[in-house]
Amino acid sequence: MRLSSLALAAGLSLLRVAAHDGSQQKPLGDEKKGSQPNIVFILTDDQDLHMNSLDYMPLVKKHLIDRGTQYRRHFCTTALCCPSRVSLWTGKQAHNTNVTDVNPPYGGYPKFIRQGFNNAYLPVWLQQAGYNTYYTGKLFNAHTVENYDAPHAAGWNGSDFLLDPYTYMYLNASYQRDRDAPVNYKGQHTVDVLADKAYGFLDAAAADGRPFFLGIAPVAPHSNVQTLLFDDIGDIEQAAVFSPPIPAKRHEHLFGDARVPRTPHFNPEQPSGANWVRRLPRQGPDNVAFNDHFYRQRLRALQGVDELVDGVFARLGRLGLLDSTYVFYTTDNGYHIGQHRLQPGKECGFEEDINIPLVVRGPGVPEGRAVTNLVTTHIDLAPTILDLAGAPIRADFDGEAIPLRARDLEAAVGSRHEHVTVEYWGFAIGEGKLFGDEKSRLVLNNTYKALRIISKTYNFYYSVWCNNEHELYDLTTDPYQQHNLLHPSALSESNTEPLLLDGVPLGKVVARLDALLLVLKSCRAQTCVRPWHALHPTGNVASLHDALHARFDTFYEHELPRVSYGRCELGYLLDAEGPQWDVDGLVYRHGARWDEWV
């Protein structure tokens, strides 16, 4: 049975190496026996892939894109800073960390501490594996000048954290080093301050001689935000004042003609999406002009990051560490400006928000503008780094290590999973200006569960919102996600003849996607990696293609409950989440087995 063909360059499985064949690269195991590589992890804030920000970073291109591998199908699983970062450092989906917001009670640094992760995240495990660990920049939201020592973030030999409420103030940042009191850097550009701190940690790491991990987390290109401390927040709209990012003065004149790419879904004539997104008004000329300015400011703010990357590689070269160091470059979540009529922001399930940059360079990693379309996620990064370190991979990880060597990339073509779990709770915020009749930048009913599933023959996004609206996009024929196949208007247009996805009835595909989402929205550990096994324990189904066989029609279309919500909530409250698939393969609701509940 065949679904629509996927117009991915060379398909999901293909690795393209433009200048150097992977066989010419030093394999990961070529290092001296018993040695462990160094790891530098650069994590930007809100950087887009789909608005071409990497095209404006020539030094990232020089050191990383031209000398490493791009993972073009890399996704975050929650498009919001703190939940995404906690998932990244723990290897767990947000429904398993229950850190789902940027501030208490549902998220932020206090929730990270309360959930017990201060002793169970990547730097702690790396120290146990013999690494020195260092970090500078933004760790989590609601990590503040008042709670940084209640307790200190564990797992770091050296740290210099950005702290709220100054995290997003480009010219008024406060950093807190090791056990010292916070220091304010008013008038200095935060990325320049960060760069000096990162170079200092590289020097310290080299002098010690042990393998090291260094996390570098600039705030760019996040909006400039003036905020109150999280415990002072009553009305979030009163507590945060958003404005475009502020570049360093040496960069403020750049890219005067740049504007948001005018893709088909940029400020479209017809609405798209579901729920509140579909009700957005079309943006007027003044609004579009301001958003183009916002876009240029993001590109300008990223120039400091570009210089930082150059400085890191220069320092690694002087220290003689280039050949023994892996460098990862990614961001916490993506960003949209104008797509689907959205004001600047994130928090949605569209590609702009969840499909994000990931570039890796290091020993054995194919170089020469190498590109892979294997599906990878932030949940996979902790196991990847532990694998590089030679440390045990934890059984409770919700992801699996990302293949880095050419031979491992090739071997993963037929075996790696094809899905991404996407989830979100709570609000969405427009970070630009208010225009026209807009009275609020805040939307509260932005809770949804979704999945992305990509192979050589299909490419879908499927979601269920907390008001029980549904979305389905076939990105093969609709790459900009403009035509929700499950919106009532689309269904009414096809009521005379069954809607087909290249020969497969729409309802048949939706039933399988819904069942997959039913498992993924409450999965744990290996069930998150191999969800079809939960539905078919005999192992005869490993993909959507397999599940579409006619012999499974009754099971999917009549026997399983559908994903639904009881109500919209701002956080992960199980009794609002509808049917769940538990670890024993039983479907239940409100703590009872489904067959008992019905």
Largest sheet: 11 strands, mixed
Q: Kindly report the spatial arrangement of strands forming the biggest sheet.
A: 1-14-3-13-12-2-9-5-6-7-8
Radius of gyration in whole Å, from Cα? 23 Å
Q: Give the CA-based shape.
A: globular
Strand residues, percent: 15-25%
Q: What ranges have pLDDT less than 50 throughout 5 or more consecutive residues?
A: 1-33, 590-598
Q: Helix fraction?
A: 25-40%
Modified residues (3-oxoalanine (Cys)): 81
Catalytic activity: an aryl sulfate + H2O = a phenol + sulfate + H(+)
EC number: 3.1.6.1
Family: Belongs to the sulfatase family.
Question: Any descriptors?
Answer:
4-stranded antiparallel beta sheet; Alkaline Phosphatase, subunit A; Alkaline_phosphatase_core_sf; EC 3.1.6.1; disordered C terminus; signal; 11-stranded mixed beta sheet; 18% strand; disordered N terminus; arylsulfatase activity; alpha+beta
Describe the overall structure.
26% of the residues lie in helices and 18% in strands. By secondary structure, the protein is an alpha+beta fold. It has a domain of 407 residues: Alkaline Phosphatase, subunit A (3-Layer(aba) Sandwich). An eleven-stranded mixed β-sheet has the order 1-14-3-13-12-2-9-5-6-7-8, with helices on both faces. α1 crosses α8 and α6 runs parallel beside α8. The longest helix has 34 residues. The protein is globular. The N terminus and C terminus are likely disordered. Belongs to the sulfatase family. It holds the Pfam family Sulfatase. Its EC number is 3.1.6.1. It comes from Lasiosphaeria miniovina.
